[in-house]
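If you are new to this repository, start here. Below is one unmodified record pulled from the training split, so you can see the exact layout before writing a loader.
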Amino acid sequence: MASPSGTPTKITQGSQTKGGIGESTLRPDGTLKVTGEFAYSSDMWHEDMLWGQILRSTVAHAEIVSIDTGEALAMPGVYAVLTYDDLPTDVKNYGLEIQDTPVLAHGKVRHHGEPVALVAADHPETARRAAAKIKVDYRELPVITDEASATAPDALLVHENRDDHHAGHVPHPNIVHRQPIVRGDVAAARERADVIVTGEYTFGMQDQAFLGPESGLAVPEEDGGVHLYIATQWLHSDLRQIAPVLGLPEDKVRMTLSGVGGAFGGREDLSMQIHACLLALHTGKPVKIVYNRFESFFGHVHRHPAKLYYEHGATKDGKLTHLKCRIVLDGGAYASASPAVVGNASSLSVGPYVVEDVDIEAIALYTNNPPCGAMRGFGAVQACFAYEAQMDKLAAKLGMDPVEFRRLNAMEQGTLLPTGQSVDSPAPVAELLRRVKAMPMPPERQWESSEGADVRQLPGGLSNTTHGEGVVRGVGYAVGIKNVGFSEGFDDYSTAKVRMEVVAGEPVATVHTAMAEVGQGGVTVHAQIARTELGVTQVTIHPADTQVGSAGSTSASRQTYVTGGAVKNSCELVREKVLEIGRRKFGSYHPAWATAELLLEGGKVVTDGGEVLSDLADVLEGETVEVEAEWRHRPTEPFDLRTGQGNGHVQYSFAAHRAVVEVDTELGLVKVIELACAQDVGKALNPLSVLGQIQGGTTQGLGVAVMEEIVVDPKTAKVKNPSFTDYLIPTILDTPTIPVDVLELADEQAPYGLRGIGEAPTLSSTPAVLAAIRNATGLELNRTPVRPEHLTGTQLSEG
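And here is the target side for that same chain:
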């Protein structure tokens, strides 16, 4: 079959984007995205394609009594209607770690919006109307929505026949995973404490709110296989889950990354991938599925809401004595990444502080709420919100400056974590706090000017609710710790294929990986690495697909570290082969070929003294050099299931924030004026991109603090606000000034000394904003996001 239009094209970065490591080179996809010319997955098109549609459950927990598809099948233009009984193999479930998610519901539905049936038709509206004509008879069951209903002695089981590897160590079948961490003697340490503070914290559920809803195009192949063009975060993980359901070997399920409009964890799990492939193979025609925004809220996992119970102690001179905490994460109906989120939340629940005596427990529940999994920060976000509130409580009770209290207890390189692991790379927590506190403060009463009030600078903004009456300023600080890369014994690696050849008389490098470019700028960095290591100007980035080895997921701040490491490794091997060719061709004419340390710079082969030996084009003339190589970070190990001890993480990233807010105490409105950040990045491979990542993560943390929450009805477990009309995200008018102080302390074990940076700023920006609001109002505010009624004491109507 012909290839679809809108497919990814090779991106050649020529002389207009020269630059190697450490330079702010421009993104090759930037102009295309700004002008609207970039092809996203929803833009894919095939001349004879059908449109797929998914029928989703209207209830959260129910037995499926019957499904009647007759009326839908009878509609003109409908090519297929599929239910669970039409699945082609005995493999009918999938999942990242635990295969507990059904491709289509069978016997019962476990959450609002679960896929029940599929339709393929010749027009998207026909497919939608046909799906609406499918009649499903439900017998509703009681819903499990919290820990009390999930773990009661007579609780219904969300999954009746669990046989996964976590089932044997959890105290109840409705608990996905449990991870305790016990170190030292908390009871004895508690006796040494001069002050003790406790807190119960509630963290809401957030949506990743990426720009492009789920979409993709499945094209049946002549050999009986299928080619899926898809927006995802991990091509090979998708492939591993898709192929068994289709009954195909992996080499007959070819996958190519299509344009991705953001991810933030929401594309780690499958959405419409299997559904599109099933319909394509059933009908023999290409099938495209594009979610609308309403469907997208049901089509991917969200961030785990959490209840966090904390107790800290400290001596009168400000030294932390102990931590006792319990973290309850709501994983929803299916496991997704919940086990890993539990591991992160528990192991990072102390924060970037030295606490020798701890008693920690983290669990994730199965409930009938929406499934939850990966989202930027991945368990560490929820913990940071709680432990930073605790730090402010302790500082207040001791009469200490909150920043100096944190600095006094800050970890550093060599600190032993509660898991027993030593921090073996720079951990400049105290320095980041010092830097962010020293940054200039924004001026007071910015809304005032000689021309009159600028209401955009006031709480309520353009709604013009105040001209400064009842407006109070607050300042708050926070710092966080986030692990980088996959942890707990996961074999985390990436693969890169690099080729060098002469094209039109000029040496060109081509970099081919399966890395999902989701907006983080990996395609830019890969070209920078190739230029630096191979001395070329022209670098082509091959479209990501499964014709090269796995690059792992674009998540956990790992891609620049791991896939960047793979590209660097492959480039180094290519360089050696190129030099061998040069020695063979020219070595007898110039002894420096054999004796000097040779470098590739600016398209030439030069000695370490700067003498030019040859043009690269001459060396490569008639030759093509290609290497495919893997790169792994150092191994980790699982946490002990009884004590939580183990070297579970590879690297850590740290960020500190200072928030300045204005609060209208009469109306409960908040305006965040500034979110200053100091962050250690190890090495800024592309300084402009680094700033973008930090400012973007900071803005997401702002949304978590004051507006973003998926609201689920506790009586029905139905989502109440699946749209951007009711689920609010920050706009440019909500985004404050975000000055950034970048620190570069190299991690000697990482490529170029770099440190993953994308998640850390999301952690600390949220508690910094909450701390500033507390500072302005004097309220405790143990819940996020903060709503106006929390600040005024007025309960707003749910209607």
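Two things worth knowing about this chain: The longest strand covers residues 471-484. The chain has a mean pLDDT of 95.
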